[in-house]
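Each letter names a residue; structure tokens follow underneath. Both lines appear below:
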Amino acid sequence: MKRTFLLITIGLLLFNLTFGQSVQYKRLDSLVDSLFKQKIFNGNVLIADKGKIIFEKSYGLADEKTKRKLNSQTIFELASVSKQFTAMGIVLLEKQGKLNYEDKISKYIPELAFYGDISIRNLLNHTGGLPDYIDFFEEKWDKTKIATNQDIVNVFAKYRPKVIFQPGEKYQYSDTGYTLLGSIIEKVSDKTFGQFLSENIFQPLKMKNTFIYRSRFEPKKIENYALGYVTDSLGYKVLPNSFGKEFYTYYLDGIVGDGTVNSTTEDLLKWDRALYTDKLIDSKDKELIFNSVKTKDGKETNYGFGWFIGNSKKYGKIVYHTGGWPGYLTYIERHLDNDKSIIILQNHSNSKINSFLQKVRMTLYN
């Protein structure tokens, strides 16, 4: 009798759990499918609860010309979601005793010694005050050439653009800072940026579909790749290359550190899971990576090392990062207090996900 009661109880619990998950799945699918039908979403979504995938689906095409569809293994350019891997590369080198967060950037990039007290830590949390290289290259760069990280150093050394503010005074998101971090990784490790990340992060975590890829600088054939599309003036989906070699996605394609990591939703879940363990780093490192710092005037930056930091009464502590580059919009969000993960990779720049994200969170928490 007791055994029968126990089996019934277990059966009811499993039914309720399965039913709840089914309702969640349908709600999430309905949310994304609505955006897809409105032609404002094209990509892959993966949502996990304590590491278990509760929703995973692909919407739309990876290649508009051949009509090849996206699937769970499709590879996307991550854009600025790449910054968390650059930051991790620096953290790993610090753990190896090969650099210090307080080191001035001039120690590794002497050409920029005129920037004085800007430190590696300033670059990591966007408090260095360096001007934006993208705007600067639009004005100063010979667009018949593809720029690399060393070109950023050379051009800045030549023209010496002034800092926006002194180190630590303010927070301003800086792609320039993360390209210099990419250069520092290469100089300290004596490896290319891609080699270092592969050997120290991607391979240990078995992220088999994650790598550095620059399609114009080092073209190669990649199976199951999501081509990135933008909308032209007539409303058609086109590849950024259609705008010619003077469009910035072409002549800035040799630069690493602020972008160019390519990955899949499932590989990013492996990354997410590893960050709950000590496989790469320990709790002391995570304190730095996942906590905001203050500027000299006492204001919170709401940025750690390669992650935005948020706190919510409803959802607890959240760390996240967005990525945007012509053709791609990407997003990863980790709920540290409740171990929930949202990963969204899109290969079309015409997208709106803010209201969608709020509805996803509400669905996750019932």
